[in-house]
Specification:
The complex is a heterodimer of chains A (about 525) and B (about 90). Chain A folds into 2 domains: about 150 residues, 3-Layer(aba) Sandwich (Glutaredoxin); about 300 residues, no CATH class. Helix content of chain A is about 30%, strand content about 20%. In chain A, the strands form 7 sheets. In chain A, strands 15, 16, 17, 18, 21, 22 and 23 form a 7-stranded mixed β-sheet that branches. Chain A has a 5-stranded mixed β-sheet with strand order 5-4-3-7-8. In chain A, α5 packs across α7, α7 crosses α8 and α14 crosses α16. Chain B has 2 helices and 4 strands. Chain B has a domain of about 60 residues. Chain B has about 90 residues and is an alpha/beta fold. Classes of the chains: A alpha+beta (about 525), B alpha/beta (about 90). Chains A and B meet through β12, α6, β14 and α8 of A and β1 of B.
Chain lengths: ~525, ~90
Amino acid sequence: MSAAPSGFSLTDQNGQTRVFPTGRPSLICFLKEDCNTCNLVAPILEAFHQAWGEQADIWVLGQSKDGNQILQDRHGLTLPVLDDSALKTSFAWGFEIVPAVYWLDAEGQGGPCVEGFVRTEWQALASQISADLKASDCGVVWADLPDWRPGCGSKHLDREIHDRLLAEANNSPIRARRIEIASSDDLDEFMFDQGFSDGLPLVPPTPERVLRMLSGTQRGSQEIVAVVPPNMAPATVEKVAINAVMAGCRPEYLPVVIAALEAVCTDEFNMHGVTATTMGASPVLVINGPIRQRLGMNMKLGALGPDNRANATIGRALRLIIRNVGGAKPGGVDRSTLSTPMKFTMCFPEWEEGSPWEPLHVERGFAPSDSVVTAFAMTSGPVQIVDQESRQPDQIAGTLGLGLEGMFLSKIHRMPVDALLVVCPEHIKTLLSDGPYSKARLRDRIQEVTRRPLRDMVANEISGAGIPLASAAKMTEAQLDMLVPKFSSDQHIHIVVAGSEAGKFSAAFHGWVTGPAGSVSVSRKIEC
Amino acid sequence: MTTILDPTDERVPVERQITARTGDISGIVGLLDIHKPRGNILLDELELLLATRYPKVELRRYTKPTFAKPCPPDLRLQIRSECDYLVEALAD
């Protein structure tokens, strides 16, 4: 913030426009009526005006309209009292405390600002003015005044006001179109009417809020984070911030939203297809690394559910960006037959501390100290896998396999489709009851217990899905007897840990079309 | 006045768009008197003109309880369900 006096044009108490610099030496003093020290110096300023008003402009800039009138009446001020109730001049001059007084030359240049009241400083100021003007003393009896009085914080530094002024300033990082809504309009209804909402109420993205949101990242507001499908619209950091405000995010969540958007707007993730499919797919975000703790995310009891602000709003912000910037709306490019509530929001952190395994992001090549978001395209979930009886590690692993067998349709096997398995802490305990139990062994066990003969996949009177009868007719008995697991590769089984320490209930998310023709999960480091 | 920032890609204007004009009137036209003085006189004249120019159009009159408050939801729903067009008359 610069603290240099700059030109202004303001109106005094008589409606006269006063322009600075004036072409004469000027004493400019900012006051606010409810500040005791401002009231202490107001008569001094009037005395200055009486003594030197012929040679210099002695002006008060008051910070509220009503307060200016009170100041003028209370102290019988005849000097010009200018209206800076908009606080733009206070903001531009950049002082912090009122009274703030400047002695400036005819070009508006001059010495430092004197803030508050230190008698010796004000006395020195009076001597300086007297000397500069080659004029007599102002007649103020300094000995009658206190040695020192603290000033008050300038009104332009009130948080809401300051953020507004910052947003309106010429160097504001805000460039988005401003929409003015009449006070007679219902703001919430207006945002619904404009189609900005996912169906839930929104936090109005005022310039002040967006500015605060932008403080959550070091990135420039006009940097393009991603080109967002389906409209292939560029999303600037500012647009991301606007939607993050609407979703209810705090500024410190913004880097996560940015990384998540980068992840889903890759060719690999294929957000267009995820949006458009009639099957109804949605990004599912898994957060790893230290940022989980910093944001207070919930990775334990109820980790996949509601109530934690970061869990809830990061996923929602991503959704709002996809629909508002990218234009993905149901009935438009979004053609989901039933869709899924995960499209409102689905974001949770892994409970790395409760896991015996490498966290997901480390498994995917990142350092443990990195904070990372991983996006999966999922069509169902979380689907509960219930087992309260198994006491042997292979039994629990078997249960998790059988739980995954229902993905899409239980009879269909050898699927080239991702699943995201969320193992609960009690199931972990059982898995480890006889010693270490690696992720690789768990994946093997899942594949082992879901092996079925191909003949079980052949279309029949119960279900026409699977291997067509005509194809099956061309297969040998040995081929039909071949055992195939649920997944075409164990690499499709992604495993994380989350949930409360009580309850033997794991869960799975079922994927969409995995691979280049569909979607591949993508991880992005979160740059804080 | 509240200012918010546009969350979209700004390819669509934010102003509410008026319905496309067909150049013809058919069906049922509602005439809503908002209960301002002389609103009924304005609507009487309008009703006469419409009935003369569009004899096949059915005209229905409605009245708000008071001009000072928004139209009651029930009346709004009734108009919406019964009419193809609505003329709302200010007056004084």
